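Severity: low
Component: inverse-folding endpoint
Summary: output formatting inconsistent between runs
Steps to reproduce: submit the following structure tokens with default settings.
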């Protein structure tokens, strides 16, 4: 199963090196190492916590990586309003890529999406790596759509021409992203990708996409349709919606945590260090750090109290002013899968 990391703040930049490379359990190390506190058994029938960890979280994530970070440079040159994303993706592990390390050492941003991939059925090529960009909007996913081969044509038939034409790879995730963008923009095409939308509308578009996928699966497979794992994050660079979802009565999605304080420990300007070491470069107080939220597959600081497991079928929403809230993801009860799955 893939791993990912999100940082969004209204005012406080993070240095990519501080959040993605420096910690002993940074996203780069999650290529082959995992730390999963607070997980519990995904099914009550004598399935242990160890099985839950192994079933949807313990995998080597060596099939490439991707980054998207927002910059205001185009706005500075009068070409647009608001920041826009830069996307960098590679088919090799992050620490095998010298460009990645150089970018991280010299880049800071208020909005960052980062992802390491464990391929399932699709090819190991850079275009299949997350994140996926549609104008100012970025999408990232960990999990899988069941029976994807049998529903992909139905998904594509519902997309507008521009979102369908923007698909470069063959993953279930990118097709889900394109359908989400169709619903978000009401099929108005490429020009609407530069617009901003409320977090309420973004959440509704995600749920509509998820419900469409489940409906297509049930049309093809009936009661044999298995559950989907949908850990998803979407942003326009200023607001964020992230959800941890699985359409099954008892099974749990892959791990997903959030923090509104770990960004201080993950910033060399401030006291402390993600591994508990002495930080001799700090010159600011924790109180000076801006509001932020981090969403991550696994915690990356030694302060375990900074991290909270996102409840099953809930989403974290961050507004442009930095306010963060948790909301349930509501969906029809008959959309729960009956068949058990890995």
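Observed output (run 2 of 3):
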């Amino acid at each position: 199963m893939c791993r990912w990391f999100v940082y969004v703040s209204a005012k406080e930049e993070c240095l990519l090196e501080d959040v993605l490379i420096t910690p002993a359990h940074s996203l780069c190390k999650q290529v082959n190492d995992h730390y999963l506190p607070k997980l519990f058994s995904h099914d009550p029938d004598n399935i242990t916590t160890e099985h839950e960890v192994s079933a949807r979280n313990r995998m080597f994530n060596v099939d490439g990586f991707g980054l998207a970070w927002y910059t205001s440079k185009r706005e500075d040159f009068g070409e647009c309003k608001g920041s826009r994303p830069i996307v960098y993706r590679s088919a090799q592990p992050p620490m095998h890529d010298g460009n990645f390390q150089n970018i991280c050492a010299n880049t800071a941003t208020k909005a960052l999406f980062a992802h390491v991939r464990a391929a399932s059925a699709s090819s190991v090529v850079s275009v299949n790596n997350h994140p996926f960009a549609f104008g100012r909007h970025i999408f990232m996913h960990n999990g899988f759509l069941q029976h994807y081969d049998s529903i992909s044509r139905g998904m594509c038939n519902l997309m507008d021409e521009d979102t369908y034409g923007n698909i470069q790879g063959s993953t279930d995730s990118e097709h889900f992203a394109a359908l989400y963008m169709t619903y978000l923009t009401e099929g108005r095409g490429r020009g609407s990708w530069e617009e901003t939308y409320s977090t309420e509308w973004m959440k509704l578009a995600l749920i509509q996409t998820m419900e469409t996928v489940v409906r297509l699966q049930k049309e093809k497979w009936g009661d044999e349709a298995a559950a989907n794992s949908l850990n998803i994050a979407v942003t326009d660079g200023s607001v964020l919606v992230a959800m941890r979802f699985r359409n099954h009565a008892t099974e749990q999605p892959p791990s997903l945590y959030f923090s509104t304080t770990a960004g201080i420990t993950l910033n060399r300007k401030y006291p402390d260090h993600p591994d508990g070491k002495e930080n001799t470069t700090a010159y600011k107080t924790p109180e000076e750090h801006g509001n932020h939220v981090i969403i991550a597959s696994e915690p990356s600081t030694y302060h375990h109290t900074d991290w909270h497991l996102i409840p099953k079928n809930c989403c974290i929403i961050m507004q442009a002013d930095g306010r963060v809230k948790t909301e349930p993801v509501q969906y029809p009860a008959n959309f729960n899968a009956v068949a058990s799955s890995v």
